[in-house]
Design a protein that fits this description.
By secondary structure, the chain is an alpha/beta fold. The protein has one domain: Rossmann fold (3-Layer(aba) Sandwich). It contains eight helices and seven strands; from the N terminus they run αβααβααβββαβαβα. The protein has helices spanning 5-15, 28-34, 50-60, 72-77, 80-88, 119-126, 137-147, 176-190; strands at 20-23, 66-71, 93-99, 102-103, 109-110, 130-134, 154-159. The strands form two sheets. The protein has a five-stranded parallel sheet with strand order 1-2-3-7-6, sandwiched between helices. The protein has a two-stranded antiparallel ribbon with strand order 4-5. α1 (5-15) packs parallel to α7 and α3 runs parallel beside α5 (80-88). It is globular, with a radius of gyration of 15 Å.
């Protein structure tokens, strides 16, 4: 049975410490509710951009962990980002792929390759330091601390079901420029 994305996000919220999080697409509505005041910047509206946005943050703030909540459909839109991330080799980047086999945000159409797409092999082939898949919530909980401490770039393919809400069914949040300003203010306060 697939893991509920919201269950994963609640566990991440409890373990993230001062990490900057980059939720995208179907993780965004739940993350806004689960961690409304965290250090995050959502990547909705530019499908496939979360990994590149996360890379930029990781390079700009090497002393802080950056965690990207990517979708399988989103990553397929920008597969080249895997090689770019691996080439930059940010030690502080954790790239979580919420794999459900569909473009959930736009109507749950199958992604090319569906569930057979192997992002772990792609990440390893691109040169990520570490990549593995998780299909069980107990395994996720056991490995969660290392996702925030292992040297990156680290990719974890999380086999999930569909989220309860999507950005299309749960409008909200702030425009991107306001998120950037908010994150900058929070980072200046926390140093």
């Amino acid at each position: 049975m697939a893991i509920k994305p919201e269950e994963l996000l609640r566990a991440i919220a409890g373990a993230r410490g001062n990490a900057i999080c980059v939720p995208t697409m179907t993780t965004s509505p739940a993350w806004r509710t689960i961690a409304p005041d965290d250090l995050s910047i959502g990547c909705v509206g530019f499908m496939g951009g979360a990994s590149s946005l996360g890379l930029g943050l990781a390079l700009a703030m090497p002393e802080r962990r950056v965690v990207v909540f990517d979708g399988d459909g989103s990553l397929l839109m920008q597969l080249g980002s895997l090689a770019t991330i691996a080439g930059a080799a940010p030690r502080n980047l954790t790239h979580l792929i919420f794999k459900n086999g569909v473009y959930h945000t736009s109507g749950a159409q199958d992604i090319p390759g569906g569930l057979t797409v192997d992002f772990v092999q792609m990440a390893k082939g691109a040169g990520y330091r570490k990549a593995y898949a998780i299909t069980d919530f107990d395994d996720f909980k056991r490995r969660l601390p290392s996702m925030f401490s292992d040297e990156g770039p680290l990719l974890v393919e999380l086999h999930t079901g569909l989220a309860d809400k999507t950005p299309m069914t749960d409008r909200g949040g702030q425009p991107f420029h306001q998120q950037v300003e908010s994150l900058q203010r929070k980072l200046h306060k926390t140093g």
